[in-house]
């Protein structure tokens, strides 16, 4: 018998115990230091290590890996596809960390012809697939009659195609758009608030530096009152992480967190393509989650607003089992595509609008860069050389292909996630009892 190649053993933060996880065999246990020693010495008098998949026959493990990979691929074929549509790259905000600011401005505006071509393409290309549309930007809900007419037309076409629609918006004009949004099947509205009023208004302001917090809060209230799901996102870095407790308290006191229509996420401010944040403001992933862990210890009520995933620790806590082994964590060109008002096709939201990342066109004619698309589609932990011998690969999935490409020059390279560090924190927070 040998140690499984997929054992992950981490010391649990603030504990003498260890967290032992094997994503391939969907096993997880809290064990002692002595049990770690016995496992590493291949001693298994009770047979528990073998039964749980921590000690394996090499041939059997290769077979299990192949079967799990096939299961993952089959499930992903059945997954819902998220289709991003960008009606414009312009924005009424001038956020201090906007990554799209460095993009070359496109002077064209969206037209009904482009919207028609978009629906024609997705109805043909993704026929028989479960799918929904997410309207992205720039800022898709800009004020003005022309923008409102285009959004109304897009929603009309979505209704005709029986497709749900989500929006990613800065939220400044939400109140004025609620009546229009109510005419469609709105899955959710993602809105960003970066802290309480003073902190948020110091980061996310209009182009004239006017404040935006109060108007966004009104928009969130209006959506919840209208029965529209809100996904509130806080983009964090070292300048505003300390305000998470304040924003949590604000959301709790306003009654948002008690609504079944309300959920949250934390977005890490990081270098993508262009980013105005200076590097010293940015967190790496491990350090951010250490800060979140510390804040949760100091202000337990934050958990009512936001609970970090800590890799797969939260999932294990909530489901009392492990998720399916993650052979690929990048949805680009698989369960996610992006399209813009110029008629161009991209892999995902991280590449949309970036010169050199075009994968084809849907208007005025359909074209595809088949070889490039296949490179994105074939990328997973079985094709990335560094992932093939990595014990955490099936909890990491190879990370983001766009980030990997920016860093290494090609998509078939890893964007490594600090799985061990996150599991150490997550076991301490979610599984300590």
Q: Can you give me a brief rundown of this structure?
A:
This protein has 433 residues and is α/β, with parallel strands linked by helices. Helix content is 36%, strand content 15%. The chain has a ten-stranded mixed sheet, with helices on one face.
Count, helices: 16
Shape designation:
globular
Helix content: 25-40%
The assembly state of the depicted protein chains is single chain
CATH fold assignment of one domain: TIM Barrel
Give a quick account of the main beta sheet: strands, pairing sense, barrel closure: 10 strands, mixed
Rg, rounded, reads 23 Å
CATH superfamily of one domain, by name, is Aldolase class I
Number of strands: 15
Task: Compute the average pLDDT.
Answer: 95
Distance between the termini: 32 Å
Q: List the uncertain runs.
A: none
Structure overview:
Helix 10 (285-298) packs parallel to helix 16. Among the domains are: 2-74, no CATH class; 80-308, Aldolase class I (TIM Barrel), CATH 3.20.20.70. Helices cover 36% and strands 15% of the residues. The chain is of the alpha/beta class. A hairpin with a 3-residue loop joins strand 12 (336-340) and strand 13. A ten-stranded mixed sheet has the order 11-10-9-8-7-6-12-13-14-15, with helices on one face. The relative contact order is 0.13. The protein is built from 16 helices and 15 strands. It has helices spanning 33-40, 48-51, 58-78, 112-125, 145-160, 174-181, 197-201, 213-225, 244-253, 285-298, 302-305, 313-319, 370-378, 393-396, 401-408, 419-430, and strands at residues 2-3, 8-11, 18-22, 27-31, 55-56, 81-86, 131-135, 165-169, 186-192, 230-236, 262-268, 336-340, 344-346, 360-361, 367-368.
């Amino acid at each position: 018998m040998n140690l499984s190649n997929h054992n992950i053993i981490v010391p649990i933060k603030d504990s003498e115990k260890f967290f032992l996880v094997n994503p391939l065999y969907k096993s997880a246990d809290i064990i002692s230091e002595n049990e770690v020693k016995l496992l590493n010495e291949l001693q298994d008098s009770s047979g528990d290590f073998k039964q749980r998949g921590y000690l394996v026959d090499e041939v059997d493990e290769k077979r299990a890996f192949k079967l799990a990979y096939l299961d993952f691929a089959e499930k992903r074929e059945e997954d819902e596809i998220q289709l991003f549509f960008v009606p414009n790259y312009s924005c009424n905000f001038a956020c201090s960390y906007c990554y799209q600011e460095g993009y070359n401005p496109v002077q064209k505006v969206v037209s009904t012809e482009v919207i028609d071509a978009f629906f024609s393409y997705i109805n043909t290309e993704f026929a028989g697939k479960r799918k929904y549309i997410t309207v992205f930007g720039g800022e898709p809900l800009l004020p003005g009659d022309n923008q409102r007419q285009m959004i109304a037309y897009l929603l009309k076409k979505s209704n005709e195609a029986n497709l749900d629609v989500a929006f990613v918006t800065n939220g400044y004009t939400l109140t004025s758009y609620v009546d229009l949004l109510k005419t469609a099947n709105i899955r959710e509205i993602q809105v960003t608030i970066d802290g309480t009023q003073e902190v948020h208004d110091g980061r996310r302001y209009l182009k004239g530096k006017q404040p935006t917090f109060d108007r966004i809060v009104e928009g969130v209230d209006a959506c919840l009152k209208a029965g529209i799901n809100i996904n509130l996102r806080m983009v964090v870095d070292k300048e505003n992480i300390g305000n998470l407790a304040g924003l949590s308290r604000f959301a709790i006191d306003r009654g948002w967190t008690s609504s079944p229509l309300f959920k949250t996420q934390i977005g890490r401010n990081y270098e993508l393509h262009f980013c105005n944040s200076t590097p010293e403001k940015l967190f790496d992933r491990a350090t951010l989650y250490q800060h979140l862990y510390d804040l949760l210890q100091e202000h337990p009520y934050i958990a009512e607003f936001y609970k970090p995933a800590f890799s797969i620790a939260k999932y294990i806590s909530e489901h009392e089992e492990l998720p399916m082994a993650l052979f690929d964590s990048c949805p680009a060109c698989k369960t996610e595509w992006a399209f813009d008002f110029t008629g161009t096709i991209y892999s995902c939201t991280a590449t949309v609008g970036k010169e050199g990342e075009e994968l084809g066109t849907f208007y005025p004619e359909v074209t595809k860069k088949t070889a490039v698309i296949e490179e994105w589609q074939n990328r997973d932990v079985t094709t990335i050389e560094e992932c093939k011998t990595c014990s955490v690969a099936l909890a990491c999935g190879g990370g983001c292909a766009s980030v990997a490409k920016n860093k290494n020059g090609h998509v078939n390279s890893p964007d490594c996630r600090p799985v061990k560090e996150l599991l150490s924190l997550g076991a301490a927070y979610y599984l300590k009892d």
